[in-house]
Amino acid sequence: MGLKKKKNVIILSCCMVACFILYQLYFFLTITSEANMNVVVPVLDYNSIKDLLHLRSEDDKYLNEHGMIRGIYYADIKSYRPDSNKEFKCKTSHQKIPFERVNDDFCDCEDGTDEPSTTACPDGIFYCDTQSPRKQTLSISSSKVNDGICDCCDGSDEWLHSNSDKLLSQSSPKHYRFYVTQCPNNCNK
Question: What is the pTM of this model?
Fold first, then answer.
């Protein structure tokens, strides 16, 4: 191969690598930018299935409108899928339990990772639906989930209440609360 051909191959290879890196950077910035209001790209298109929500089973109550398990940190979403043996692996103890025991209102894992949507684990953490990589991830103690007080800025911790229930709103800068029928979304303020 001549010197000119080697030079062309090197230049072409460098251009391909640079294009790939730029594409990956664009994709990463698109997902993590605050321009899309801290919303993670949904797994399911909620608008196309909202007419079918009456078909959801009792087990689906722990799924949010994006089809993801409530209360998990979005970076850990792949660990909340059953493995090939239909088991769930606890985060710190690496203990394996049947996947049916996730969100069954009984704390099986020592770290509480098997109950992200319930109040079963005393040391559990509930991650609000609105999460941002640039800000501190919004999380609360799992004991505050569905307690009638809006703790998450988006109200995602009070998902079990009906519209006829009275809820205490988020704390304002003046430190007063009032009753609401639905938690307001104050995350982008």
Answer: 0.62
> What does the domain layout of the chain look like in residue ranges?
33-144
Using CA atoms, how far residue 168 sits from 100, 129, 130, 150, 161, in Å, is 33, 19, 19, 6, 12
Beta strand ranges found along 46-134 (DSSP E) = 87-89, 96-98, 125-127
User: How large a percentage of the chain has pLDDT more than 70?
Assistant: 74
At 45, is the pLDDT very low, low, confident or very high (cuts 50, 70, 90)?
low
Number of C-beta neighbours around residue 119 at 10 A: 17
CB 108 within 8 A of CB 132: no
Q: Which among 93, 143, 97 has a CA at the least distance from the CA of 123?
A: 143
Q: Which residues are CB-neighbours of 131 under 8 A, at least 6 positions away?
A: 38, 40, 73, 74, 137, 138
Q: How far apart are CA 115 and CA 113, in angstroms?
A: 5
Q: What is the band of 41 on the pLDDT scale with cuts at 50, 70, 90?
A: very low
